[in-house]
Design goal:
By secondary structure, the protein is an alpha+beta fold. The protein is about 50% helix and about 10% strand. The protein starts with 20 loop residues before the first helix and ends with a strand. It comes from Parafrankia irregularis.
Length: about 400
């Protein structure tokens, strides 16, 4: 494979922040595997990305000390226990919290989501013009995952600050400033100290929440001592808050820019669920992730040695024309009917398939469906401002008018 690619990958330049997809398309058309470094390639097409996700011998490599993306890093310094683990530890830890996110469990909170959505919209509609990220897209998922974990609502502002710092820290180190690199471990330490105090409170005041369950699991020897339950709590909070708020915000923008799709949605309530999958395909919150070869693997004719890395460009794979017809067009019927399109990759796949996928879909469906029906005058009042992050891609502000 050539070490001097003819196509320059520049999708992360600030000029492309609002719409990196044409740049993704250029590199996807150029090659299935784009060289970033001799030991790190980037998968750009659906077939290769899906295959890597499905293969359990593509992992993270932190515990074995072979991760080339952050060589030498202490595994405990990677936010979110499950995000740094490979089996068997990943299997053990995932199993402890999996039941809290199963469809039969999350279906029980539908009423809570609907009530919260309507309360937030009552205030936003009364105000008339709001930043919909601040008034709706952020407080909804933060309240839901916060309540599931057991985070006091008065702590939300503080939690948001740490969460944003960690989201910024998920971007490649080469794209970060020295200041942001320095803030990453500080935010993680503050977040963990906060959860350590909450866990200590749950030991003397147990409740029906995930943190109480983590205490019990630790007491029973199912979780290691030290930082493992803290990292798990941080990972669950960020996964259940940041990515869902980004999905909601970006979906609203996509729909406002495609009013014909709004009309189709409003005309057919049964399209709400498949529409969410199309929005996830079209504007995924996580644009890319990475894996490490835990053994020699072959992808698209290239042999990866143990310890080599691959970047999975999910956002490019989701718009692969070899898989999706007219992939740059928003079509909320794409995943409907008896012959839906192939599954998008926005929730990853294989052993690391997103634990909160069902909850994320449910929150997004209720949020957007209720918003469209309660605010038919919904319109942008200015251009949205995009957050300065590239891995977890979302909006900073979303100025709208909710009534004519």
């Amino acid at each position: 494979m050539s070490t001097a690619p003819q196509v320059v990958f520049d999708a992360f330049h600030p000029a492309h922040r609002s719409n990196p997809y044409p740049r993704y398309a250029a590199v996807r058309e150029y090659t299935a595997l784009y060289p970033l470094r001799p030991d790190i390639l980037m998968a750009t097409r659906y077939r290769e990305c899906a295959a890597v996700f499905a293969d359990p011998l593509w992992g993270h490599g932190y515990e074995d000390g072979i991760n080339p993306f952050r060589p030498g890093v202490d595994p405990d310094d990677v936010p979110g226990s499950m995000l740094r683990m490979d089996p068997p530890n990943h299997t053990r830890v995932r199993g402890l919290v999996k039941s809290a996110f199963m469809p039969r469990t999350t279906a029980g909170i539908r009423d809570r989501i609907e009530n919260l959505v309507n309360r937030l919209l009552d205030a936003a509609i009364e105000a008339g013009e709001v930043d919909l990220m601040e008034a709706f897209a952020r407080p909804l998922p933060l309240t839901i995952i916060g309540d599931l974990l057991g985070i006091p609502r008065e702590d939300h502002t503080m939690v948001q600050k740490w969460s944003l710092e960690i989201v910024r820290g998920t971007d490649p180190d080469i794209l970060q400033t020295p200041e942001s690199l320095a803030r990453r471990p500080a935010a993680m330490a503050e977040f963990e100290a906060y959860f350590a105090a909450l866990l200590a409170r749950r030991r003397v005041d147990p409740r029906d929440d995930i943190l109480t369950g983590l205490c019990a699991a630790q007491d029973e020897g199912q979780l290691n001592g030290g930082r493992e339950p803290l990292g798990l709590a941080v990972g669950l909070l960020i996964g259940g808050y940041e990515t869902i708020s980004d999905v909601i915000g970006k979906s609203i923008v996509a729909l406002l820019r495609n009013p014909d799709q709004v009309q189709r949605w409003l005309a057919d309530p049964d399209l709400a669920a498949p529409a969410v999958d199309e929005l996830l395909r079209y504007e995924p919150p996580v644009q890319f992730t990475h894996r490490v070869a835990l053994a020699e693997r072959e992808v698209a004719g290239h042999t990866f040695a143990r310890g080599d890395g691959i970047v999975i460009l999910t956002a490019a794979a989701n718009r692969d024309p070899a898989v999706y017809i007219d992939p740059d067009r928003l079509d909320i019927t794409r995943f409907a009917g008896r012959a839906p399109a192939p599954r998008h990759l926005s929730f990853s796949g294989g052993p690391h398939y997103c634990l909160g996928a069902h909850l994320g879909r449910l929150e997004t469906e209720i949020a957007i469906d209720t918003l469209l029906r309660r605010a038919p005058g919904l319109a942008l009042t200015d251009e949205p401002v995009w957050r300065d992050t590239v891995a977890i891609h979302g909006l900073d502000t979303l100025p709208v008018r909710l009534r004519a």
